[in-house]
Every structure is written in structure tokens, then in C-alpha cells.
């Protein structure tokens, strides 16, 4: 079933084309020929599964590359520690890991342009699972029962949520993003989010409430804006590459600024959380909060659950729950990582390196969790 914005957008496009054709020749009669944009739109609507699967594959491959990069960087740090060689950033292995991290995050960024945000976010558990497997195979980590059970639950949850996630795909155009921004569900959602964020920030800064849930909620509220803006920017870039120019609209640059700002503040709060709490606590809690906020953002802003059956919604949430439990079990009871003994460097401390896409720092922290016993 097509949503309201699709019907409205199609009616406006058809009316505009009819007016244009009548101005060119008032004597012409018959069917109005379809423009290339309309033909592309029809093709996407007729073959949504192809675009949907492409987004899933890109996201999984991106997360797998990220897990490889994390373990390569960890290996470079361990080797530098044992050999007493120069700084970590002089190692070719370390820079190889950085490059793979960038490619993986770029893949995740692109995936938001092809698949629903509520699906791409939970697939982040692939990075945690792959990191655990790679650390056992190449860094000679000990396999625990909780790792096996957690990996099994995460794989099962990933399969369930991919199967029952919303399969509808739509072109993210500047006009569509503008329509969503002024829709009353998003305005109401934004209003409550700002109120909650201000209350939490007041408790954190003024009342000195340093509970991990407060900090992670601040990150999650920012993450919802990041997901919305990342999908908007990625979608408009995708449409531009396909030949439908979107970069001339101011909304593209507004979303670009929102994306950069929300990412920067997330990194700030995550760094503070890592200073106050252990990575074994931060990683699973942030994964749950970030995924929940991404799903909620997709539902409210992009209306991704519109027309979805109750069974599909229930099974999708059940798949997310299995993934959450899997990540908690993988991170559970890992050796505590003391501040002074941390060998793995966060991305914000890499000279000249920046994390452009949400979730990169959390994946770096997950590498600390997975390889914490080295």
C-alpha cells in the first residue's frame, strides 16, 4: 500500500507534467509520455526488493570490514607494545585498519540510502559478532560459552529482523525530506525529544548525575537526529548519482550540518562515558539505546512501519531483542579495561582523523570489549 506522501508526490508530478505539455502544444492529444524521473520511480516501486537487498548487503559488508579493521588496529597496538617499536601511527598495519574503517563506515553511510533506517541500525551487531570471531581466530582469544550463545542469538536475531523488517523502499528526495520535516508527527517527536534532552543535560551538568543511563540517553537522543540526517543526505546523494540532482536544495546542506553536529556531540558524550564507565558496560547499553532510537526515528520521520502487519512488527522487535541479548552476552563478564592500561585508541584521538558516520566510536569500543583479554 502506498503512503500518503507517495500519492501526493505522484499527483503533483503528473499535474506539473500535464501543464508543461499543454503549454508546448495545445493540439496534442493522447497519453503524456513518461519522463526519465518518473520511469526511474516506477522501476524502484516495481522492484523494491532489489534495492532493499542491496542496502542489506552493503551494510553487512561494511560492518564486516569494520570488524576486520578493529582487529588489525588492535594487532598493531599489541605488536607495538610487545616489540617496543615506534608510535602506533607509524605502523602500516594500523593505517591499513584505519583505511578499512573508513571504507566500512562509507558502506554503512551508503546503505541508509537503499534500505530502511530501522533495519540498517540493528545490523551493527554484525560488527560485534565478526570482531569476536576474528579475535579468536587471529588474536588467539579464548572462546567462552557466552560468546557462542551470544553469537548464535545475534545471528538468529539478525535473520529474523531482516526477514520481517519493512521491505518498502522509497526515493529520498529534497521535496520528500521537506515534507517530512513539517509533518506533525515529527514536530511532536522533536518537541518531546528536545524537552527530554534538556532535562537530562540539566541533571548531568548542573545536578552532577553521572549515571550511565543518563549519559547513554543523551547519546541516543542525538543518534536519532543522526540517523534521520544520514539517511536524508545519503538518499539525496544516491538520487543525484542516479541523475536526479538534489544538491541544489538548501535542505541537503541543512541535513549535512545536522549530521556533522550530532555526530560530534555524540563522540563527546561517548568519550565522557568511556572515562567514567568500563567499555563492557558502555558498548551493550549504547547498542540497545542507539538501535531503539534509530528504529523510532525511522518510524516517526520516514514512516517505515506504515502498512506493516502486526505480526511483522512483533517479529521484527523480537529479532532486535535477540540481537540485544547476543551483544550483551558477548560483552558480558569481559575483563575490566583500566583507563591506564587501554592500548586501543579512540578515533577522536587519531591525528587528523575524524569519524563522519554514527556508530564508529562504539565499534572501536566493541573491539576493546572483544579483545579485552589480550
Summarize the structure in short:
The protein has helices spanning 4-24, 36-46, 48-83, 92-111, 117-120, 125-138, 145-164, 174-181, 184-205, 212-241, 250-276, 279-300, 310-331, 360-370. The protein is an all-alpha fold and 374 residues long. Belongs to the NIPA family.
Features:
mainly alpha; NIPA-like protein 2; Mg_trans_NIPA; disordered C terminus; 374 residues; magnesium ion transmembrane transporter activity; membrane; single chain; transmembrane helix
Tell me the Rg in angstroms: 22 Å
Average pLDDT level: 79
The percentage of residues in β strands lies in: under 5%
Could you list the spans in which at least 5 consecutive residues all have pLDDT below 50? 12-38, 40-46, 337-362, 366-374
- Which percent bin holds the helix content? over 70%
The counted number of beta strands is: 0
How does the major sheet shape up? none
Report the structural category: mainly alpha
- Written as H for each helix and E for each strand, in order along the chain, the element string is HHHHHHHHHHHHHH
Which shape, going by the Cα principal axes?
Answer: globular
Tell me the number of helical segments per DSSP (H or I, 4 or more residues long). Answer: 14
The N- to C-terminal Cα distance equals 52 Å
Organism: Gouania willdenowi
Pfam families: Mg_trans_NIPA (PF05653)
Keywords: Membrane, Transmembrane, Transmembrane helix
Membrane topology: Multi-pass membrane protein
Amino acid at each position: 500500500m502506498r503512503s500518503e506522501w507517495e500519492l501526493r508526490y505522484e499527483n503533483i508530478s503528473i499535474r506539473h507534467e500535464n501543464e508543461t505539455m499543454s503549454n508546448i502544444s495545445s493540439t496534442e492529444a493522447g497519453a503524456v509520455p513518461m519522463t526519465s524521473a518518473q520511469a526511474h520511480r516506477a522501476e524502484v516501486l516495481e522492484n523494491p526488493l532489489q534495492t532493499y537487498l542491496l542496502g542489506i548487503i552493503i551494510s553487512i559488508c561494511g560492518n564486516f570490514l569494520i570488524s576486520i579493521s578493529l582487529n588489525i588496529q588492535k594487532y598493531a597496538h599489541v605488536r607495538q607494545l610487545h616489540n617496543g617499536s615506534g608510535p602506533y601511527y607509524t605502523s602500516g598495519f594500523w593505517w591499513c585498519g584505519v583505511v578499512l574503517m573508513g571504507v566500512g563506515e562509507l558502506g554503512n553511510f551508503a546503505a541508509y540510502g537503499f534500505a530502511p533506517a530501522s533495519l540498517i541500525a540493528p545490523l551493527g551487531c554484525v560488527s560485534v559478532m565478526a570482531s569476536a570471531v576474528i579475535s579468536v581466530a587471529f588474536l588467539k582469544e579464548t572462546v567462552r560459552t557466552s560468546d557462542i550463545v551470544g553469537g548464535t542469538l545475534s545471528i538468529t536475531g539478525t535473520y529474523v529482523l531482516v526477514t520481517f523488517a519493512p521491505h518498502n523502499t522509497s526515493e529520498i528526495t529534497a521535496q520528500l525530506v521537506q515534507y517530512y520535516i513539517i509533518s506533525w508527527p515529527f514536530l511532536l517527536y522533536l518537541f518531546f525529544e528536545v524537552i527530554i534532552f534538556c532535562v537530562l543535560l540539566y541533571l548531568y551538568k548542573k545536578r552532577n548525575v553521572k549515571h550511565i543511563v543518563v549519559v547513554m540517553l543523551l547519546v541516543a537522543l542525538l543518534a536519532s537526529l543522526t540517523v534521520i540526517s544520514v539517511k536524508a543526505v545519503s538518499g539525496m546523494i544516491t538520487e543525484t548519482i542516479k541523475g536526479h540532482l538534489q544538491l541544489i536544495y538548501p535542505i541537503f546542506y541543512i541535513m549535512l550540518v545536522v549530521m556533522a553536529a550530532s555526530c560530534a556531540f555524540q563522540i563527546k558524550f561517548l568519550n565522557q562515558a568511556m572515562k567514567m564507565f568500563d567499555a563492557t558496560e558502555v558498548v551493550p547499553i549504547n547498542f540497545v539505546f542507539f538501535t531503539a532510537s534509530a528504529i523510532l526515528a525511522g518510524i516517526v520521520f520516514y514512516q517505515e512501519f506504515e502498512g506493516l502487519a502486526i505480526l511483522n512488527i512483533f517479529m521484527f522487535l523480537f529479532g532486535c531483542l535477540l540481537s540485544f541479548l547476543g551483544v550483551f552476552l558477548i560483552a558480558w563478564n569481559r575483563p575490566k579495561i583500566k583507563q591506564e592500561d587501554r592500548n586501543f585508541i579512540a578515533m577522536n584521538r587519531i591525528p587528523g582523523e575524524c569519524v563522519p558516520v554514527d556508530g564508529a566510536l562504539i565499534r572501536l569500543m566493541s573491539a576493546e570489549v572483544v579483545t579485552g583479554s589480550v
